[in-house]
Structure formats: C-alpha cells, structure tokens
Recover the amino acids of this structure.
C-alpha cells in the first residue's frame, strides 16, 4: 500500500514556511535540504521539516495540501506548534 505525506517546512521558528505533498518524505526533504529544486524553498532556505501527516490516499493528501495552502499563517503556526512546539527539524529523527 502506498503512503503519501503532506508536510510543512520552515526556515526556522516562526520563519518562512512552505507546504508540500509527496509519496516519499525522506527523499523530498533531502531534495529540499540539498537545494535540488531552484525555487521558493531554495531562495528562502526553507529546509526544516516541522510538520507532516501521512495517509494512504493520494486524493486525501492532495486535498489536505490544498486546504493547508489556503490557511492563513496563524493557523499553520498553531498546527505546527500543537505537534512540534519547539519547531524541531523532524527529519533528524529519520
């Protein structure tokens, strides 16, 4: 069964944030950390994994990513801090 992830990266605590979706969280976070994609996360050094959710449905993951992208910044910060109050880089646990 496939797994899909919706994730939020941050440049630091209360810093610039980015929301994305992938089917391979480890690979995708590593790509952000290695600055493989020359875009928003590279420009603003948004590389710390501060939040993620897992699902087995690609449709659910896409819908959730779109939902989070529509949220205002305060809601995203509250979501992050509910599970990761210190804004630790969760990728360090992998």
């Amino acid at each position: 069964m496939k797994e899909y992830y919706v994730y939020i990266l941050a440049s630091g605590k209360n810093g610039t944030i980015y929301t994305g979706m992938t089917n391979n969280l480890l690979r995708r976070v590593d790509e952000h950390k290695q600055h493989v994609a020359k875009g928003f996360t590279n420009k603003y050094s948004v590389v710390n994994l501060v939040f993620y959710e897992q699902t087995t449905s690609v449709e659910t993951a896409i819908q959730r990513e779109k939902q989070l992208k529509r949220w205002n910044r305060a809601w995203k910060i509250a979501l992050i801090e509910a599970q990761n109050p210190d804004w630790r880089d969760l990728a360090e646990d992998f």
The longest strand covers residues 48-55. The mean pLDDT is 97. The chain has four helices and three strands.
